[in-house]
Design a protein that fits this description.
The complex is a heterodimer of chains A (118) and B (240). Chain A is an alpha+beta fold and 118 residues long. Chain A is built from 4 helices and 5 strands. In chain A, strand 4 and strand 5 form a beta hairpin. In chain A, helix 2 packs antiparallel against helix 3. Chain B has 240 residues and is an alpha/beta fold. The N and C termini of chain B lie far apart (47 Å). Classes of the chains: A alpha+beta (118), B alpha/beta (240). The interface between A and B is medium-sized, with 13 and 17 residues.
């Protein structure tokens, strides 16, 4: 009985960490511009409700290689992938955003990013 | 050296091929077939021969498949174009807003794809066309580049018509392929990205694998046989 109540109350959210990289012919965009672009695109396609439910968080962005980590909820992973593949330009500069690696552990994502930095 | 297969030599693909040709050797499926089989024509083992030659370590070249999209306004002009181009391109697609032309093209064995425009205001394809395509073992081609538009109205039109088209294709169980047709190299997307984009049109991720990877290669292989002189048309028996 107690277990049943607990499962009703507790909502388990599992995070996914996506390592992404920006490819561009021009100067690589800053983290703030990438953030605002992804948030805007997410709101256009999935609305404000969808964006808040996605739990997006940007971390460990390296401006030299243009790679970083995005955290999202596991249910919003495919939506985030759609948004990443939809983006063609940031601040009028043509870019491609590629998702390189997806994992459920932040340390694994950081390790992958370190390999990229080397 | 890494093995790369370039399928499609349109505006962007041909430019890529020219650039790649400076550093690597570039070839087509027809060339591989001729080199591996010689004069012998082994229809039964064709798929195995080509896959072996692609996988083998000796083979390290890039494969290009030429493709032409015909946008004709009448059946007569389409017939003329097809008779001119049938031996010059490996894949021939037809794009039109006229359903009569599309129905005629669905019958013709020289046509491989029927391209569907997601931006068209009225739905061109119907159930009859879908069943014709299925009967003749042909594919619809859904071009997903309109989904990359920054204009909100354009995206909503593309998603709306794309959902309708996929519903029709899904209900009739017709084959389809997903492509990008990019205007610049920044619109190029890999197979997995295309599969994610297709989710906007209600195409489930697990259903789109065949339409992104398998169907395209199968058609290319089939056409390699079609372009051979010794090819025997389906339904015709070779005289002893």
């Amino acid at each position: 009985m107690v277990l049943r109540r607990l499962t009703e109350v507790v909502v388990i959210t599992r995070d996914r960490y996506v390592v992404f990289q920006v490819i561009s012919n021009e100067d690589l965009p800053t983290l703030s511009s990438i953030k605002s672009k992804i948030w805007d695109e997410y709101q256009i396609i999935f609305g404000v409700n969808g964006t808040t439910g996605a739990g997006l968080f940007f971390d460990n962005y390296n401006e030299i290689i243009g790679a970083g980590i995005i955290r999202c909820e596991h249910k919003a992973l495919s939506n985030l992938m759609i948004i990443l593949s939809r983006i063609t330009a940031i601040n009028n500069a043509e870019v491609i955003l590629i998702s390189l690696y997806t994992t459920g552990l932040v340390n694994k994502a950081k390790r992958y990013l370190k390999i990229l930095e080397k | 050296m890494k093995k790369i297969i370039v399928l499609g030599a349109g505006m962007v693909g041909s430019a890529m091929a020219i650039d790649l040709a400076k550093e690597y050797s570039v070839t087509s499926l027809v060339e591989i077939y001729k080199n591996t089989t010689g004069d012998k024509f082994d229809l039964l083992n064709l798929k195995e021969i080509i896959s072996e030659s692609i996988i083998s370590s000796k083979f390290n070249t890039h494969i290009l498949i030429s493709r032409k999209t015909l946008e004709e306004t009448s059946i007569e002009s389409l017939k003329r174009k097809l008779s001119e181009l049938r031996d010059k391109y490996e894949i021939i697609a037809v794009k039109s807003d006229n359903i009569k032309i599309l129905k005629w093209a669905a019958h013709d064995r020289r046509v491989d794809y029927i391209s569907v425009n997601l931006m068209s205001s009225n739905l061109v394809i119907d159930k009859a066309l879908c069943s014709l395509m299925k009967q003749h073992n042909k594919c619809f081609e859904l071009i997903l580049s309109p989904l990359l538009l920054s204009d909100n109205k354009g995206i909503s039109i593309a998603i709306r018509s794309g959902k309708k088209i996929f519903k029709l294709i899904y209900s009739t169980n017709t084959q389809f392929i997903l492509t990008m047709k990019p205007d610049s190299c920044f619109q190029l997307r890999n197979g997995i990205q295309i599969r994610y984009l297709a989710q906007l049109l209600d195409i489930p991720y697990n259903r789109s694998k065949i339409s992104v990877f398998d169907n395209q290669l199968l058609i290319a292989l089939k056409n390699t046989m079609k372009l051979e002189k010794s090819n025997i048309v389906d339904g015709i028996k070779e005289a002893d």
